[in-house]
């Protein structure tokens, strides 16, 4: 029952945060006091911003917390995003986990909670944070208790270069798979690589399957399949077949199977940042990643965004979105100052700083006015109009089943698997849970 309860909350979590228009609120820092003001406290903190403004943001925010709490020292370690899950799991297993670590909810967080390694924050969240975070806190709910606090809301879609679209004669963004395939053909005819894909990291390739499933499956089917770990609905096979059919038009960049997602100019994000490819399917963190990979280190001026297209005969609502809520949790054995720090970064000034540093959508409703990037504003519009928003499938399913799904998708793209093998692999992994 633990998994079912967790998934039921997670798949609907983002709907509680749909009121994203900025509203007035206090920018005072919350919860930064300590009952042990005379005792030295050290907090270890792992985050996934290894360079640029994001890394600087966390350094400044930690320093501000230390200034407000002179007895506290925060020891920061930056971990490459693609290495985070594995390194964290190793640290948890060895008993050497950080006090503060990334959390994205779903089955992954539920597994950590079940192992007794996450702090119950339910009674430690300030009233101010509860008000501005709203439904995003539900992303970190396990059996009715809260084990994390959010930093950003990250729905996904297709990011594209307006200049390259214009160069290829594409005047409208695709709304159907047929239109997307037509755009791919026009880009290839213009000598432009259509879609950047960092399949070496597996999850970016699997994101395409997630979205095909979102369009092929009804909301009820997605929720029930995730809750029961049952993938007998034909829509899961249909999603894989639709993906395989799309892959046959060869839409992805040369060498996509060995391309990374976010590391350097040759990554999928780097290809878009440097106009070496026209599109990339990714979450709402992408503008910030791309900005760090452009030649001048600034946001891509012609970056646009559109929702994942509809597919023929799909039972999913064409306005549905998929994404996640990034955030942080505290280890069960961390000092109480860990919870104080999470409350601290949720203050309006720090959430606005987060939105600006990461070029993304902050979790706090009071900080939404900081979203000025035109592409992200388009994301917000679609987000507000979405019939529902589901969490990334690998997050919902948990690390073991999610990783199996991601790997099976890559095998299909590599020619050593197919739509049937994706479903079979997921079923086999789920049977072991």
Provide a brief overview of the structure.
The chain is 44% helix and 15% strand. With 433 residues, it is of the alpha/beta class. Strands 3, 6, 7, 8, 9, 10, 11 and 12 form an 8-stranded mixed beta sheet that branches.
Would you mind describing this structure in some detail?
- By secondary structure, the protein is of the alpha/beta class.
- The protein has two domains: 2-154 and 324-374, D-Maltodextrin-Binding Protein, domain 2 (3-Layer(aba) Sandwich), CATH 3.40.190; 156-321 and 392-431, Periplasmic binding protein-like II (D-Maltodextrin-Binding Protein, domain 2), CATH 3.40.190.10.
- The protein has 18 helices and twelve strands.
- The strands form three sheets. Strands 3, 6, 7, 8, 9, 10, 11 and 12 form an eight-stranded mixed β-sheet that branches.
- Helix 2 links the parallel strand 1 (41-47) and strand 2.
- Helix 8 (203-216) crosses helix 10 (234-247) and helix 17 (399-414) runs antiparallel to helix 18 (419-431).
- It is globular and about 70 Å long.
- It comes from Cellulomonas xiejunii.
- InterPro entries: Bact_solute-bd_prot1, SBP.
Keywords:
D-Maltodextrin-Binding Protein, domain 2, 8-stranded mixed beta sheet, 15% strand, 433 residues, alpha/beta, 18 helices, two-stranded parallel ribbon, 12 strands, 2 domains, globular
Q: What is the highest CATH level, the class of the largest domain? A: Alpha Beta
Name the CATH architecture of the largest domain: 3-Layer(aba) Sandwich
The termini sit apart by 12 Å
Helical content (DSSP H or I, runs of 4+)? 40-55%
Low-confidence stretches: 1-13, 15-36
What portion of the residues fall into strands of 2 or more residues? 5-15%
Number of helices: 18
Taken from the alpha-carbon principal axes, the silhouette is: globular
CATH topology of the largest domain: D-Maltodextrin-Binding Protein, domain 2
Radius of gyration: 21 Å
Question: Biggest β-sheet, characterized?
Answer: 8 strands, mixed
Class computed from helices, strands and strand pairing:
alpha/beta
The CATH superfamily of the largest domain is identified as Periplasmic binding protein-like II
Q: What series of H and E elements makes up the topology?
A: HEHEHEHHEEEHHEHHHHEHEEHHEHEHHH
Mean pLDDT: 89
Q: Please tally the β strands and state the result.
A: 12
What is the total domain count? 2
Signal peptide: 1-21
Keywords: Signal
InterPro entries: Bact_solute-bd_prot1, SBP
Protein name: Extracellular solute-binding protein
């Amino acid at each position: 029952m633990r998994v079912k309860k967790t998934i039921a909350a997670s798949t609907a979590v983002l709907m509680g945060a749909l009121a994203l228009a900025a509203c007035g609120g206090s920018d005072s820092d919350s919860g930064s006091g300590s009952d042990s003001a005379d005792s030295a406290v050290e907090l270890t903190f792992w985050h996934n911003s290894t360079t640029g403004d994001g890394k600087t943001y966390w350094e400044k925010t930690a320093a501000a917390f230390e200034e407000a709490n002179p007895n506290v020292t925060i020891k920061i370690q930056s971990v490459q995003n693609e290495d985070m899950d594995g390194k964290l799991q190793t640290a948890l297993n060895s008993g050497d986990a950080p006090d503060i670590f990334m959390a994205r909810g779903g089955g992954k967080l539920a597994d950590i909670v079940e192992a007794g390694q996450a702090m119950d924050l339910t009674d430690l969240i300030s009233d101010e944070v509860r008000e501005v975070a709203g439904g995003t806190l539900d992303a970190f709910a396990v059996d009715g208790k809260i084990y994390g606090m959010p930093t950003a809301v990250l729905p996904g879609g297709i990011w594209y270069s307006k200049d390259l679209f214009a160069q290829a004669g594409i005047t409208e963004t695709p709304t159907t798979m047929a239109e997307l395939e037509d755009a791919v053909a026009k880009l290839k005819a213009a000598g432009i690589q259509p879609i950047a894909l960092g399949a070496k990291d597996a999850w970016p390739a699997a994101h395409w399957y997630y979205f095909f499933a979102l369009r092929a499956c009804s909301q009820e089917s997605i929720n029930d399949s995730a809750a029961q770990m049952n993938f007998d609905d034909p829509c899961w096979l249909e999603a894989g077949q639709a993906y395989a059919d799309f892959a046959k038009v060869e839409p992805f960049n040369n060498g996509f199977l060995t391309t990374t997602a976010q590391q350097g100019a040759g990554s999928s994000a780097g290809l878009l940042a440097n106009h070496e490819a026209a599109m990339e399917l990714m979450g709402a963190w992408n503008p910030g990643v791309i900005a760090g990979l452009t030649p001048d280190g600034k946001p891509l001026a012609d970056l646009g965004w559109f929702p994942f297209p509809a597919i023929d005969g799909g039972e999913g609502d064409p306005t549905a979105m998929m994404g996640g809520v990034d955030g942080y949790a505290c280890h069960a054995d961390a000092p109480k100052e860990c919870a104080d720090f999470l409350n601290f970064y949720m203050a309006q000034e720090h959430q606005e700083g987060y939105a600006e540093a990461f070029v993304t959508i902050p979790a706090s409703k009071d900080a939404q006015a900081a979203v000025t990037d035109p592409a992200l504003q388009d994301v917000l519009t679609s987000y507000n109009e979405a019939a529902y928003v589901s969490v990334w499938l690998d997050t919902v399913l948990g690390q073991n089943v999610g990783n199996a799904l991601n790997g099976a998708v890559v095998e299909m793209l590599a020619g050593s698997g197919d739509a049937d093998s994706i479903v079979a692999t997921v079923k086999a992994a789920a049977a072991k849970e």
